[in-house]
What we know:
Blueprint: H1 3-23, H2 28-37, H3 41-54, H4 60-69, H5 73-86, H6 92-101, H7 105-118, H8 124-130, H9 136-149, H10 154-159, H11 166-179, H12 185-190, H13 197-210, H14 216-224, H15 230-243, H16 249-258, H17 264-280, H18 287-291
Helix pairs in contact: 2-3, 3-5, 4-5, 5-7, 6-7, 7-9, 8-9, 9-11, 11-13, 13-15, 14-15, 15-17, 16-17
Amino acid sequence: MSPVSVGRKISFMTISVNSRKKQIKKSFEDLIKELQTSNSEKVRYNAARVLGEMGDLRAVDQLIDVLKNDKNGSVRLYAARALGELGDTTATWPLIESLREDRNVDVRVRAARALGKLGGVDVVEPLVEALSDENPQVCITATDALIEIGEVATDALISILHNEKVNVRCDATRALGELGNTKAVEPIITMLKDEWVNVRIYAVTSLGKLEDTAAVPALVDVLRDSKENELVRAGAAAALGVLRDQRALMPLRELIMHAEDLGELEDTALKAFKKIMAANWQKVPGAQMAKK
């Protein structure tokens, strides 16, 4: 047998062995036993992971116990993840406790993500509280979880728009835009006066996403404010393009015509102008003739 053939045979045997290993499946009972009694943290967190993927709700109580009591952060992390995947609301309050109290950042992140999957009114307040977490990844994950929960989070997010922490104001403003409830339009308009540029950028972006033309006058004011940051003004122009309200045509045209150079702001304004014209050409004097 040639060396090449031997090599191929060894390779084939390795693949076969690996394939057989992958086919070995542990029973639910075996996984629960490993989760509860193994001295190996790797075995325990793998058991938690697989139990979440199995979808068997009988594992919920054992996973909650591990989430509360296991000394290893990785094991608690996978327990939180599994509880989110299983979707049993019995885990809601244990996950809330982990989000509020666990010292491990990764566990808090996973708890926030799991709560987003579970949803419900009870998880809104703890997730809003988590926007003030000392770790930015927890804040971002909590924001995404609130977005996933949906409109039930609207009022709570509106209530913290003027929080003293700038990251909380940013996250709340962004989330409200994603939720799509036009109840947030007027509160977000007030954020256009925030002292922080990032908050104002999120505000103009969210007003575009909410697609309510009540925001047009406020966005036009931002567009016309030459003292405003150009990124904010460009964001206002983009939002006006999304809203496609013909009241924005003249302010956009003026900005373009008076510009000495065509930068990002002017380019965004031009694109917005074209979008609005395309949507309103039948209503704009002279545009119908030009269309023909």
